[in-house]
Design goal:
By secondary structure, the chain is mainly α. The protein is built from 2 helices and no strands.
């Protein structure tokens, strides 16, 4: 969050974070799915939330 304190505001926020694990469906486990969802769904929401406070 160092960058947020450096500027007075933001005009745009680009959430460019995502992960994937290439696997056959039957070889995919809950841990893999949870990690993918944590980054791909939660991270953009948290980033947008922090940026929108400024």
């Amino acid at each position: 969050m160092e960058i947020i304190g450096k500027y007075s505001g933001f005009d745009i926020c680009i959430n460019n974070a995502g992960i994937n694990k290439v696997n056959k469906l039957f070889e995919t486990n809950n841990s893999d799915i949870n990690n993918i969802l944590l980054v791909n769904l939660n991270a953009p929401i948290f980033i947008a939330s922090e940026v929108s406070k400024k």
